[in-house]
Design a protein that fits this description.
By secondary structure, the chain is an alpha+beta fold. Among the domains are: 12-139, Nucleic acid-binding proteins (OB fold (Dihydrolipoamide Acetyltransferase, E2P)), CATH 2.40.50.140; 148-227, Nucleic acid-binding proteins (OB fold (Dihydrolipoamide Acetyltransferase, E2P)), CATH 2.40.50; 460-508 and 581-674, OB fold (Dihydrolipoamide Acetyltransferase, E2P), CATH 2.40.50. The protein binds one DNA strand through residues 26-27, 29, 32-40, 42-44, 55, 57, 59, 61, 87-88, 92, 94, 151, 153-154, 173, 175, 177, 180, 195, 197-201, 203-204, 206, 464, 469.
Length: 675
Amino acid sequence: MSKKSPVKYVSLKDASGRCNVFGVVQFCKQPVKTKGTDYLMTISITDQSLAAGDKLVCLIFHPSLEALPRLTAGDVIRFHRLKIGTFNDKPQGEAKCTLGCSWLVFGADTEQLQSSSKNFSCTDDDRQKKDMTSTCKELQQLDSSFLADVWFYDDHFLTYLDMKPAQFIKLCNLHAAISKDPDTGQPFTNTTVVELVIHRGTSYGRGIVFLSNDSPEVQCLKKRMKEISGPESTDTCIINGSEKIQSCGDEGCNRTTGEIDTNIKQTRPSAAATRGQGEETSENAPRPGCSHWDNAVSQSSPQYASTDQNSKIFNNENTLKMNSLGIDRIHSDRVERKEMENTTLRQGSKRKPMATKSDYEQVVASGLTTQKDSFCRDEQESSEILPDVIVISSGSTDSEKHASLNQSNSMEVVMAEPSLSEYGLLDTCNSQSLESDSNQSLYNESIQSCFSLPSPGDVCMLQTATGHRHINRTSLREILDYRVPYKFRVLAWLVDFYPNTTDVYDFVQELCPRCKILKKIGREDSEQKKRKKDVRVVSSVTSLAECLGGDFGNWNFEVELNDREVKLCSQCSTEEEPVPVELTYVLRMVLTDSSNCFLPVNLWQENATKFFNGIKPEKALEDDKEFQNAICTLQDCVLLHPSKARTDVRPLDCCIFSYSTPFGTNFQLFDTILA
DNA sequence: TTAGGGTTCG
């Protein structure tokens, strides 16, 4: 009797005609009764030969429902004599016992095999199974080495609010896609970011399901996690693949709430993206699921996500409150990267002296138009705060900076960390009520809550940074320590803003784009201009000189340009080149976050217009209805208002860039919209 | 024969 030749298997990539294959079950649909004689089960399988996400769809037919395999994702299935056809120009497997096809299932969680026939061989298949399951495991390990953010939209956000730390959930129809640059529509070139999204609605079974700890799915998941993590899994958890933190034992954890571990090791680039490399153990640090996890991760030093070409990272933010993983900052390509000469800001907040109460009041009150002279200090005072900062846009040339200096168009920026009591006096408009006993407890509560991590409900932001969702957030404290210039994304609360009025004329000023002179405009001036009839009509800026002929005596001459009044800068305009001034919003905000820092940020020109939902200052002056709505929204975001419960105030998801000036570092908001 | 992992895109 001749020995049976071994069964030859082909990879799924090479599967064609009738062949024998192994595959890891990726998806399986419940069997359905066809209009014909059979039941149909649709599955997709994959193996190492296929790229991530690729699969072979297989249809398993059988007249008996019970005779179909019971599959779950992760099982390994072996097909003999699988017929490979095509459907929609894609290969498709067809398994019909009537055509001689047979299948054998190796369950991921059971040693018991399922087979379409009573007589089946398994000797060689065992090795194949081993290979397959190890491949499957490898894939699982790859995925498990990251903590990933998940974005919940619309109705799913309400479900998200009910989530509790350490709760097991099932995300149905989670959409994974490579994030694309909203400007170009193309994937980011420096860093490939996968975003995980539960889109709105419930089509395709989309949703979040809460699982009980003793449910079979959770038991299975725990078992898999244990397998993947190895024998250490009982007392360690993997953070970003580079850190292992000793468990606090969850239920048996003896750490007290609020106890903060600051020893979590900071890992510089590449390590964060290198799985299983350079593990660091932090004694006593909690693990996810423990009530102390949030505090611990919020206070830990950041890791830096790899920005190597083609490296793959998952975005980590506050969505699941595990934002310890990485800071991936946007490098400013508009501003030359250089170290700041004046290192006051970068010396770290601990080395900076506290600001005084009056300092801080003036930070808020000074505004962008504060003249240098009006806020000068003697030498002793100056040594305790940062020097004056002149407002220069990042695109300014040296000569422009010089011109700006000569115009004394300076402003005051104080980078400070006031104590709580000092902080309490920030709200100058409500100083009386702040001092009252009835409001004190609420006020103190607000103070305390602003130094803790946001609760899930709080991370729903009314304001959102646009187009930079893939950028991990940075704390304000870290911003102060980082080199200049740089861009950051932050989650912060609005402490106050200036001007603290609702009058659009307080927000809009004339700005010369050349010398950066800002000039307030009065309501009366504006109305007078409207009535002014003695204007000349020209068609473009370049034709202004021509229009004006030899009359250069008054460069503040106002002309009408495309039905709009134009005013020329008297300092910068020349015969050859008139420089019209432009209208801009000018405002300043003071932000704070859980890192216990306060950061004044400025806003003007296009960034300010964008912030106000694209309402141009010209339009706001004409009809300020929309602008008033925006200001109301802004007022609603002010953190420290005694009349507000903490939950009323939403943080701002905003983008900030830093830049050097001759006197220090300044910050501006960009790509942030007041929603 | 039957029916057929594809869609959401903030």
